[in-house]
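Bench notes, bay 3.
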Amino acid sequence: MRYDTPVYFQKIIPGEYDPNTGNYGNDTVEETLRYASVMDTGTDLLKLVYDGPKQGSLTIQLQNHYTEPFDRIRVDKSVYSVDFSRKLRTKHTFVVSEVQ
């Protein structure tokens, strides 16, 4: 298994309130780079997690645990939300689905 795909853990920081205009500023996104093994999710795991097939789901495996808080994961230009997470002894696995 190769851990050669760049995966970005994104944390969304909401914009500040401006009392002069009554509007909120733009949200900012902080990204943390990790390298992972990324593969399509198998059909047996799709049945377990989603109760049937779901389009655009991936399995992401890291060599070490990721403990920082995050909101979503970006792989290439696609953004994913975490549906299932499992920590093994040294590895961390995420089953993610694409956010529209």
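Next record in the batch:
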Amino acid sequence: MQYTLPRAPRAPLGPIGFIKTYPVLAAAIVASLGLHAAVLSLRFAFPDVLKSREAPPSLEVVLVNSKSASAPVKADVLAQANLDLGGNTDEDRRAKTPLPASRKVEVGDDVRRAQRRVQELEAKQRQLLAQAQAERAVPKPDPKPEPAPQAQPQPQLSGVDLRDSALMLARMEAQIARQIEEYNKRPRKTHIGARAKETRFAQYVEAWRQKIERIGNLNYPEGARGRIYGSLRMTVAIRADGSVESMQIDRSSGHRILDAAAEKIVRLAEPFAPFPPEIRRDTDILVITRTWTFAPGDRLYND
């Protein structure tokens, strides 16, 4: 019989032994590593031509509504003219509009201006009446004529002239007194807008608004349902007994049917509640100005 002895396992090769045993494979591995290193070292970037196409930096230029003879030492902005300091404040501010500052208008300026005008007219009437009474009570002496080289005789006033002068003063006094009496008898009016603060007026106006909206929603204009909407401003003057003295469209809605509907609703809601004693003692007529809105859904809102 013939026996074959098994081969002993081969010991692992080291780096040098591997290169000597497999020179071609080792060369291929080294070439592959070098190629990968070269590829990974590459960096891609946009060419300078694309950078040159970017938007240029912005330059802020403002317009000034004044100018000065000298230029500022250190300018804050560029403008169409030199301006070294200006404005009405020392704070570091910049105007947002070339227009001059407008006076702030507050709600109620027109009412206060009208009240001041009424007071001025009353004071002027009292002054004229007192002046007329004083002239009638104490006649002024005739001024002495200045000495002249050739003095001419002064005409003497006759009794008829004195009588006519006294009658004219009496008529003026009676006319002024009659005007003051008529002015004092005029009905006292109180104007109420949408921002009434006094409780006694606010409660009455709120009840008035609720009635207007209730009657208005029940009598919404048929011709405007589902297709015409808008808002208007109306002023309604109410007497102490609740009847309507007058009404006026201050700002139209642009639709004749809505303006006419607002006036019709006021007539349908009349008469309103009489004034309570705390309002009646101060005013005879209450003037209410509100905004009427005919909104989608065929609803009326009174603001």
